[in-house]
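call fold target=Enoyl-CoA delta isomerase 1, mitochondrial
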Amino acid sequence: MSLRAALRTKRCVSGLLSQLPSCSSHVRPRAPAVLVSQQRNNSTSPKIKVDFDQSTGVAIMQMQSPPVNSLSLDFLTELCISVEKLEMDKSCRGLIITSSQPKVFSAGLDIMEMYGKSPERCGEFWKAVQEMWLKIYGSNMVTIAAINGSSPAGGCLMAMTCDYRIMADNPRYSIGLNETQLGIVAPFWFKDTMTNTVGHRTTEMALELGLLYSSSEALKIGLVDQLVPEDQVLTTATETMTKWLAIPDHARQLSKSMMRKPTIDKLTSNREADIKNFVSFITKDSIQKSLRMYLEMLKKRRG
């Protein structure tokens, strides 16, 4: 990876994170068009909005947790409930995940969920992160990420869980697993997901350097599958979904399971150990100090 990409990583980390506040076998006949809006509310306002078009069997999930769709415990819980409900509805065959926030898909894990929290709370949070990954990565639905903004760290992980990724062609937007830039190590299942997506050597470089890729660079390495003008991301995702749904569900689902099951099984069989490892790591004095220094830097930057 070029020095230019590494330098961009540092600039993008400072710029974006400074905003942080702290299925059947065949196509079935369709009923008359009905658009069902579902909102999950675990706090004062819904963080996830789901619009399900029963005539097409496609749901559009909008992340709407300002300012940057940080993955907090409440956010993840709400998202998982929404995905689970869609998964249980056999008339829902496809899911498009996008953001209602300008310029950002998701900024990743909420730092405030990892700083100054009890081990029990940290464990609960990490279990929710695992659950998000398991539900989307192993979903029987066709899943498409409509990436209409930057997507670092956990936001990149969420995008990679999907079957297909469409990103806005904007040089200001970036995507990647940049955890090492904050002194955090991406766990094995983050690594495995990226390796499955872009290959071993590219993942090795990306994780060790904490690289963020521009949209064009992400397309070049296969981190995203398609670039389109920003105002066409969602419409392109909808059009692409039609092509995926033309494949018989049983054949597509079995093929997907064949490709992803080993990676999923690796986490499910080591889930408790992974939670313990995360809690042990994130509660270390040295890591808490790094997070505190970073938060203080953000506070000073805001004035």
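return ok
The chain has eleven helices and ten strands. The mean pLDDT is 88.
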